[in-house]
Structure formats: structure tokens, C-alpha cells
Design a protein that fits this description.
GMP Synthetase, Chain A, domain 3; Ac_CoA_lig; seven-stranded mixed sheet; alpha/beta; 30 strands; Rossmann fold; binds 5'-O-[(S)-ethoxy(hydroxy)phosphoryl]adenosine; 2 domains
Amino acid sequence: MSDQPDVELEARLAEQEEFEPPESFVEQANVTDEGIYEEFDENWPDAWERAAELLDWEEDWNQVLDDSNEPFYEWFVDGKLNASENCLDRHLDDRGDEVAIEWIGEPVDETRTYTYSELHREVNEFAAALREQGVGEDDVVTMYMPMIPELPIAMLACARIGAPHSVVFAGFSADALAERMESADSETLVTCDGYYRRGEALDHLDKAREGLDNVGHDVTTVVVDRLGDERTVDHRGSELDYDALVDEQDGAEVEPVTRDAEDMLFLMYTSGTTGKPKGVKHTTGGYLSYAAWTSHAVLDIKPEDTYWCSADIGWITGHSYIVYGPLALGTTTVMYEGTPDYPDKDRMWQIVDDYDVNQLYTAPTAIRAFMKWGEKYPEQHDLSSLRLLGTVGEPINPRAWKWYYKYIGNEECPVVDTWWQTETGGMMITTLPGVKKMKPGSAGPPLPGVSADIVDTNGDPVEAGRAGHLVVNKPWPGMLRTLYKNDERFINEYWDEYSVPDRDQWVYFPEDGAKIDDDGYITVLGRVDDVINVSGHRLGTMEIESAIVGVEGVAEAAVVGGDHEMKGEAVYAYVITEDGQEENEEFRQEIIEAVEDAIGPIARPEAVVFTHELPKTRSGKIMRRLLEDIANGDELGNTSTLRNPDVVHEIEQKVQGD
Ligand code: WTA
């Protein structure tokens, strides 16, 4: 093995635009029949029963799809089930002693293994504890936790008693936590004392407490002792110790609550165009069927596999493809607490090697980092257990795709580039790995039963090769049902743009741009709204702007996403200061900190540019496109419609001078 990339091979790969699924994969794949596309077309929507049939139902549905009140679709109507029963109880007879969760801590050698029986026991105990604390059906429980086993345990405990969960990413700020708890009227919080990042124990509890200070109602807080240090709960307040609660419930069993297919399983807040995060509502029957079906058909998960998705459970990817999909299928799901570069840049490959991981699902931003670090890290390990690779979260450039295919998959694993969103619940556009050829850079055709198009601003399909807006023309089981307590915003955000209600045409607009080729393969180009995608994380520019204008001395701010080699996009902030405010480094830091406080370190601006004006149209709208061009160092677009064309060049000079 050498540190030098194989030049001949790279040249061959660079030219290759299509890749057939490796035969060794196809031979054993869960789905291999190309006819499945037609079957879904001809038998739509009933073909979706195939997804629901992967689950155990207490009562069968009477109708697959109820579309009588569009766009408030209902799936598997009258069906009854419980998600925790589907992820745990039903596996006990056959797979009780098999591993459900392999948890790998950041400190090397700190691991925990939960068999299905053990996980079942702990989930039951915590479900009993939550009940005893007064949590009832339909009460929203918030989790503000990093990647520790108690997070999926708490999620499944909630599912067991019919209490929807709302998981807030641990990297979000105290303010972000408070906003989400207020919005969901959530009176219970599960959090922890801290966690490890690159060898350092980080505090988490103070941040949670700070958030709670800004919640207007009483909250019961359960604290998990992750660090095992002296500092634990504040017994004077309403904080409770997780271990003590669970110990009290030793061996308790909680009958899974019968939930209607359409009952809410969870809420997940995500960024949108306007300032306030959107509470995306997912249901028990449709969502779980969809997560299980896509895990089966796309990730090719089988019960005997060891499967690893390296996302954080604080995002939708972790919900669907660390917790619900894999556990519904009874497989072993790996959960890793740390970062890919600690203690060294081979940590991921060490884990694949040690645990004989069969499928790896990660993000393009991670793959770009691996590529930069070089193939010498994967080459130190035996990765031959891998059978399938996946990516999600942002477009993947063909070079990164090919690197992943070659150096991680050894040209023997299909790569699935999966396009989807928090709102879609699961994958929508990707190749079926045992059926379709792959084209690096293009996610692929819509999955069977999913109907997508690329349209122009009139809603008419564009020619192959032309950029347009991606739309979804038919409902699907995993779709969001509404925005929490805000049906009106649900319609405005997703359906207004392209639907023609008079003609009963309901079209979902995900706010992504895309193009399609002659084979029907879709290349997703990125967001067309004011959402930016930093390392696969969705951030609303408005949310960042409102944090910045909250800083004393700031008069106005505009935030855009600029291209970034590693992160995909990065945050660029253009700031107008008030008279008398000095534009110095100290003030710049103050602005950066304000963004971190309001949202979290992931939203930290790459650059803060002071300017005395922002480019505006005659009607006073900020021309963000020009600000993006400046951030990217691109040729500037048309400036003739501006009220103040000179300012653009002024800002450009400032940025270039920085
Ligand atoms: C982007 C993450 C290109 C897209 C599951 C979408 C992608 C947003 C891909 C949703 C992909 C996700 N190719 N772009 N394979 N996957 N995106 O809600 O812009 O965090 O709208 O869900 O990520 O981000 P979200």
C-alpha cells in the first residue's frame, strides 16, 4: 500500500460517468426486480402497502390513502400500531439476544452494547418513569442530548407511551432550545451533564439550564449523568436524575399504547425562509412504514447486518436511519459519539474494521474531509465488510463520489446518493442499489411510488438538462402532515407555489433547484430559498440575520451562503453599523458570538463584512444574489436594476481586501 494515489486508476475513474451495481451486491440485495417501478405506477397508492407490511399492526388499515382533504393527506387510515413495539418487542423472540445498539463513545474503549432484550428493558423502565412524572399521551417531551444511548432510549420510551418527542440538536444554543420548547408547549426535558469532543469534556447542563430560564412554563428536567463526574442534578429545583428514576422502575413493563396510524410520533424543528423554525409533524404509521421501507430497499438492511449511519440523532437523518428504520428491521445499528478525526483521522475506518460494518451512510462534507486527509487512513484498515455506501444532506461532487466508491468501497459497493428532507421523513430520490446504474453527482430517479418533476416558474416540466425547480406531484407515506399547530404556514411553505387547487392538483415544493437527464436521473442543485446548507446542516439566513441585528450597534444585516470547499456552503454576513459604532475586530467578534448564542456554533459566520449600504433593488429588496456572487468571488450579475449600483463594487473591494 502506498500513500500515492493510483494515477492510472484515477484517470479511468475520472472519465467514467456510469457505474453498474456490483454483481456481488445484486446477488444478495433486498430489491432486485426492475419491475418494482412499474408495479408502483400501476398499483398506486395501494402498492404502498408493501411498506406498511414491514411492520406489525394491532389493527389493519381500511384505506391506504385518504386524499379527501388535500393537502392534509392521511395514510393507512384506521390502522393501529405502536412504534416502540415495532422497534423492540416484536424482535424479542427471534433476536432478543442480538445486538440492537452498538454504542461507541468518543474516548477509545468506552463502548456499550444493548441487545434487543436489554434495550427493551431500559426503554420500559424509562417509559414507566416518564409516566410517573405525569407525562401522558400526546404530551411533547423535548430531548436536548448528544449521541448517547439514553437519547434513542428516551425516544422509544416516548413512543411507547404515545408522547411525541422533539429532539433538539445538542449543538444548538440555549436560546434555540427555549424557542423550540415554547413553541411545542413542552413541559418535560431530557438532557445530560455533558459529553466529549476531541478529548475534552464539554458542559451541556448549564446550557440546558440557561435555555430553561427563558421558557415561560414549568418544566420537569431529567438529567443523564454522561460524564460520571461529581456534578449532577440540582435537587432543589425540578431536576431529576435519570439513573435514580430508572432504578426505581427496576424491571417495570409498560404496555405499548395503541396509536392511530395518523397519531404524531414526533416533531422536528427545522429552518425555513422566515425567522421562526418550523415544527415538522411526523406520524406513527406513515413515517415508520416509510423509514422501514427505505431502510430495506435502499440501505439494503437485513437483520444480521451491522449498519452505521454517522449522522447525529439530533437531525432527521439520525431519527429515520439510526433509530427508527434500522430498529424496525431488527438490525444492529451503530451509534458513535465522537468526531471522525479523534483521536486520529482513521477513527471511522477503525470502527468499520472493529465492528465489521456492512453499510455506511454519511455526508458529502465528511467525504470531502476524508479525501483531503488522504487514502492512507482508510488503507490502514480492513474495510472488506462493507457492502453498501450512502450519502445524504447536500449534493456530492463526482470527484468525492468516486473517491468514496474507490477508496472506501473498493469498487465493490454501490453508492446511494439519497435526496430527501426533514419534511419528507425518508429518502425520495436515489437509485435502488440492486437495480439501477449509478451516475456520480446525480441522486438518481425518484424511488418507486414517488413522483417528481423539474418545472419552470409556470409549473411546466423543463427539458432534460435545463435547471428548474424540483417538485413532488404525489403524496407519499413518510410526508410531514403539517407544521405543528400551524396548518396555514404548512400550506404557504410547501403547497402554494405550484398547486392548482381548482383542478385538484396538489404539488409539493421542497425549495430545491434541480435538473433531470434523458434517463430521468435528477441532479439536485441546492436550495432556492433563503436556507443555506453548511456541512449538510440547514440554516435559515433570516434566523442568523435576526441574531445579528439584535446586537447593539448594528443597523442592518444581510446573510448569504457562499461556496466553501469543505462545508459546501458557509455563512457570509454583511453588516451595516449604526453611526458612531466602530467597525473593529472586537465588534466583529461580538457579532459572531451573538450568532452562536442564538443558534449555535454551526451557524458561525465565515466572514463578517462591514459596509455602509447593501445592494438593493428600486423597490428596496436586498439583492442577495449579488452578495452571493461577491462571497464566491464570481463575476457579478446584472447590477443595472439596483438603486445603488456603486455599493456592490465597494463591498467587493472590501471582501477581496480582507
Ligand atoms: C439538501 C436532510 C443534494 C437539499 C435529510 C434538501 C441534498 C435539504 C441531498 C434537506 C442530496 C439533502 N443531494 N441535496 N442527496 N440530501 N439535500 O431537512 O437542499 O436537513 O432540501 O434533511 O438538504 O435538509 P434536511
